[in-house]
Structures are given as structure tokens and as C-alpha cells.
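pinned: reference chain
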Amino acid sequence: MRYVILRDDDTCALTPVESLERLYRPFLKRGLPVNLATIPNVRTDAKRPDGLREGFLQFNHETTAPFIPIGQHHALVDYLLSEPLYHVLHHGYDHSVFEFDCNAHDAEYRLAAGAQRLAAAGFPTPHAFVAPYDRLSPAAMQAAARRYPVISTGWFELRRLPRSWWPAYVAAKLRRRPHWSTHGTLLLSHPGCLLSKHRPFEDILGKVMAAVATQPLTVLVTHWWEYFDETKPNTEFISVLHQVADHLARDPGVRVISFADLATGRVTLPWFAPAGAERPSRDSGSVPAPGGQPAC
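pinned: its C-alpha cells
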């Protein structure tokens, strides 16, 4: 059996309910879980590393507040909580550029503040953390691991890992494993954003299925806002996403799972111990005082 996790980034207080519904109803109807990396307190002036405005801001209709907590979008929160196949992940704090390429103090602050925003909205405690642009410092990596049993990112490199993790990382590299675990944390990489508007649409399905065929577990990353051009649906790209849903559902050798399935041990892979079995209890924490491969 080969496993697939679908990770969609940047759900936030600007996300229209109808956008997620249009994209993911075919997944939900087929019983396929969708993992939404959710921004707890989105910046309304968020910029990409190249200085351009973030794509999800196309849905910012003259909002003047500099930040909007996810809990203020009541319709979205109600919609997500009503669908058990949606799994909310912790995605940064406000989606500042490389906000988790930071020191330990700032990482702890952003993690705790973000977790409080998600909890205040009524979401269950997430099982996974995703940093904006998949960028974490060693200190932020360790801080996220203390709070969440799964970290999903694009790639791993020695200089961005805590030193105590180096032996496990080197062992995984020698075994050519894209995913690994250490200190009770599952560390999952992905093969780049295969589901992207920047790729030829006619090639996407084949690339996705080829990636799925090569590994026991594949994390597929996409961004909901890429399926819309100035808020207008890109029907061709949406059709490709739905073709992916159909192929994944029809393939008897593939099972689509959530990060929670791995974190709780409902699904195990040969080199992963169930995360809860060896982890200390999760740090709920209070908010302290503020103080390689291209990312998707």
C-alpha cells in the first residue's frame, strides 16, 4: 500500500468558503481527507520573498485591519468544523516572510500565539506544523517539535536541524528516505508543488501519479488561491485537481490519509514509531513576551 497526504497551504480569514467547497467537494465525497495548513492571524499586507503581494490577498476586499484572526471568519470556521475530513494544520502565525527562520524565543512566541488563535476559533489541537515557505531555523524546528508530533516541510538540510537530530538525519540520508523521525517527531518532506498553476496543466496528473508510485508516502502540496485568477475560478486547473482526486480514489494500491493518521498511529510506516508512543506530553504553553530546494 502506498499512502498520500494532500496538504493545501494558506487557508486564512480571507478564504471564501465557496472556494474550498468548489475545490475539495470531490475529495470529501470520495472519503479523501484534506489537510489545510491554516494561518492563525493573517497579515493583510503579506508579501512573498520577491516582494510581491501574497496570492491569497486577491480575496482581501478593502480590509483595513493589519491582521485578521481566523476566528473572525465565522462562516469558514463553521464550514471546516462541519466536515470531519478537513484537518486543520498550524501554518505559521501571520505569514510574514520566513517568520520561522528565527531564534528560539521568537519561535516559541509565534507558535504559542498561533496555537491560541486556532484554539480560540474552536479548532482541535493540530497534529502537524507547516512553516511559511517551508523555512525553519534549527531553534524553530525544535520548538515546533516540542508542540506538534509532525513537521511537514519541503526538504531537510543539516545546517537547519538541531545538532541532536543529526544522527537520525544522516541515517535517513544514507537510506535515501525522504521522511524520517527523531525524538518522537515525524519529519515529512515533499517533492515540490506538483499541483501548481506554474506547471503545464497537461503534465500535472502524470507527475503526481509518478511521484506517488515511487514512495510509500507522498505529501502533495498545493495552494487553494492558485486555482483562482483575481478571484475568478481557473476551471482548467480546477479540473486537473479533480482528476487527481478521481485517480487517487480509484487506485486500489493507494490510500489517502491525514497527518493525524500518522501522528496517532492509526497508520504506521516501517521506520516510524507511532509519534504518541515516545513523545512527552505536548506543551500547551502560554505566550511569552514578543521579542536548498526552492519553497513552494
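why pinned: The chain has one domain: 2-274. The longest strand covers residues 2-11.
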